[in-house]
Design brief:
Number of helices: 15
Bound molecules: adenosine-5'-triphosphate, magnesium ion
Helix content: 25-40%
Length: 601
């Protein structure tokens, strides 16, 4: 491609809309253009990058025996009602764009494709003999994200590879899952990324069946906890660890103490001169189930620990049946306004005890009249502990479960693991923390969707059995931007060779110098012909401008037919290192071939 003929517009200044380096650079270098909130045009250079990433993804998927297809983006609401996700996706989370057609039928724009694929399997797979099967597609997904940001990182329209596998049993699923873990590692390695596979939250379905692939970068929205021995890595949403040891309580007898102005654990411990490990704190949450019922949840947890809302949400989902519901729509800490809806009198916030009375709740059709009391494992074994007294300005000390306070019947593990905690697999290892960008997620679904949608096959024994399923996603557009987030310098983007839009760019310093033009044209034709994707900067611009642009767009090798022509050579500059060398014109092709092959393999 000749730059003189290309839609090629670079910006000198950082665009105001961009916060992180990769977003700024992709805008400045003319790869993407914002069309609306979370909506971007992929311009020609970006589209080449995306096609390269897609090709790597495709090759790795095909190598596992998965088959590519293309599923509809317009999805009938009925399918989502069958799986029970229509209301959650269009209303509660509101992540799905929905619409009504001219015949008043409801439709959604696909945020993901479990429903569609399960319907296909239900129709087409009759017998165990047809299993396992794995289909995937590479396609635009639509999600009405609450906070679209960082360009392609969190768009409302983005490219994803999503795959779904069907099996007769868990063992077969596990095998495909392992193959996917390997394929995903290969994809990311081949794309030139530094990454980590981590244990991930798999929601209330549970199981150990979910891993995320995190590209390590400061701008990452996720926190990853890992140990240096390489034995453990998990998303903080899922991570487990050993809590610090409990310090012996200084309080031997139960009594109520005046503790003015101690509504935080910090202030309380300073005032009582005790350790937060001797405190039972009681944290209030408000859950709204899918049948509209609000439940007030009181979690008793050790004072030095924090509740992990993802873990809590999973526990509350498991308890949905107790409230004739299926799932939790919202989980929040009730603010003053929320409390006004159900509080019968003002709560002793900051001083609540595990037995805070149910009569603080004005029960109604929509509000359950009793607290759901949960106790985290860290608080179960405490003795002679400190906790609230249900009276503002007072705490109790020397308290014990089943003496002063009944131990809540439901024991849960909802504490947040954090950096510095001891690891479960080896207490000598402490958890380290890093930021990560989730680019891939593989998931053992089990029979969640097949059961909900009645998708079955006939087993060898002649029984109707629900499919055992897995699903596997890669954010193709997010992955491409992550590569920039990991690889740039003050001059611009440094693409990994494997996904760079072009391998080389020939920058003609002076287009009125016929010898320069002649050599450039010859190399341009020769390199492209031999498969080295090459741009020709034949614009009527100063050499300095061309070199700056070449650096900004991040093409791995820049070829300059300049002064060295008199000795039959051109200058070749490596983008990543700015290292320059003179190479005989006749050897440019073979030299670049070698370098590119070495960089890609
Ligand atoms: P996140 O937690 O970042 O919202 P997710 O867990 O909802 O992502 P999945 O449903 O697992 O995402 O989708 C598979 C992959 O698609 C993700 O790993 C990510 O790389 C990509 N992805 C998800 N949402 C977006 C988005 N809004 N923009 C770009 N890529 C996305
Ligand atoms: Mg995910």
């Amino acid at each position: 491609m000749r730059l003189s003929q290309m839609l090629f517009v670079t910006l000198r200044e950082d665009p105001a809309e961009a916060e992180i380096p990769s977003h700024k650079l992709l805008l400045r270098a003319g790869y993407i253009r914002r069309i609306g909130s979370g909506i971007y045009a992929y311009l020609p250079l970006m589209w080449r990058v995306l096609k390269k990433v897609s090709q790597i993804v495709r090759e790795e998927m095909d190598a596992t025996g998965a088959q590519e297809c293309l599923l509809p983006q317009l999805q009938p609401a009925d399918l989502w009602r069958e799986s029970g996700r229509w209301d959650t996706y269009t209303q509660a989370e509101g992540i799905m764009f929905s619409m009504t057609d001219r015949q008043q039928r409801e439709l959604g724009l696909g945020p993901t494709h479990e429903e569609v694929i399960t319907t296909i399997a239900k129709d087409m797979i009759r017998s165990y003999r047809q299993l396992p099967v794995h289909l995937y597609q590479i396609q635009t997904k639509f999600r009405d994200e609450i906070r679209p940001r960082f360009g392609l990182m969190r768009g409302r329209e983005f490219i994803m590879k999503d795959g779904y596998s069907f099996h007769t049993n868990e063992e077969s699923l596990k095998k495909t899952y392992q193959d996917m873990a390997q394929a995903y590692s290969n994809m990311l390695r081949r794309s030139g990324l530094q990454f980590r596979a981590v244990d991930a939250d798999s929601g209330a379905i549970g199981g150990s069946g979910s891993q995320e692939f995190m590209v390590l970068a400061e701008a990452g929205e996720d926190e990853v906890l890992y140990t240096e021995d390489g034995q453990y890595a998990a998303n903080v949403e899922k991570a487990v660890s050993m809590p610090a040891d409990v310090e012996q309580s200084p309080f031997a007898t139960f009594e109520k103490r005046e503790t003015p102005g101690t509504e935080t654990i910090d202030k309380l411990c300073k005032f009582l001169k005790c350790s937060p490990t001797q405190v039972v704190k009681n944290v209030l949450y408000q859950a709204v189930y899918d049948n509209g019922i609000t439940v007030l949840v009181l979690v008793s947890i050790r004072g030095d620990q924090d509740v992990n809302q993802v873990k809590l949400l999973n526990e509350l989902t498991k308890l949905a049946g107790n409230y004739q519901a299926k799932t939790v729509l919202f989980l929040t800490v009730p603010d003053a306004e929320a409390q006004r809806k159900w509080a019968a009198k003002s709560l002793p916030l900051g001083y609540m005890a595990p037995d805070v009375a149910d009569d603080y709740i004005a029960g109604s059709k929509e509000v359950n009249s009793k607290f759901l009391r949960l106790v985290d494992r860290t608080a179960v074994d405490l003795t002679n502990f400190v906790t609230g007294s249900n009276e503002s300005g007072y705490h109790v000390v020397g308290a014990n479960w089943d003496k002063e306070f009944p131990l809540p019947a439901t024991v849960v593990g909802v504490r947040t693991a954090k950096k510095g905690d001891r690891a479960v697999h080896n207490p000598e290892q402490t958890l380290q923390s890093a930021r990560g960008i989730e680019v891939g997620h593989i998931f053992q679904l089990g029979t969640k969707y097949s059961q909900a949608m009645g998708a079955t096959y006939t087993s060898e024994q002649g029984e109707e059995m629900p499919f055992v399923m897995g699903c596997y996603g890669v954010g193709v557009s997010r992955l491409a931007q992550s590569a920039v987030e990991q690889s740039y310098d003050k001059d611009g983007i440094i693409w990994p060779v494997a996904i760079a839009p072009y391998h080389a760019i020939i920058s003609i310093p002076n287009i009125s110098d016929s010898q320069q033009v002649e050599v450039a044209e010859k190399l341009y034709a020769e390199l492209n012909q031999s498969g080295i994707e090459t741009l020709l900067d034949d614009r009527d611009e100063r050499a300095g401008v061309k070199f700056k642009d070449a650096d900004l767009i991040g093409i791995p090798y820049r070829i300059v037919p300049g002064r060295s022509l008199k000795s039959g050579k051109v200058e070749v500059v490596e983008r990543a290192t700015h290292k320059s060398q003179e190479i005989l014109i006749d050897e440019v092709n073979s030299t670049l071939k070698q370098w590119i092959e070495a960089a890609i393999n």
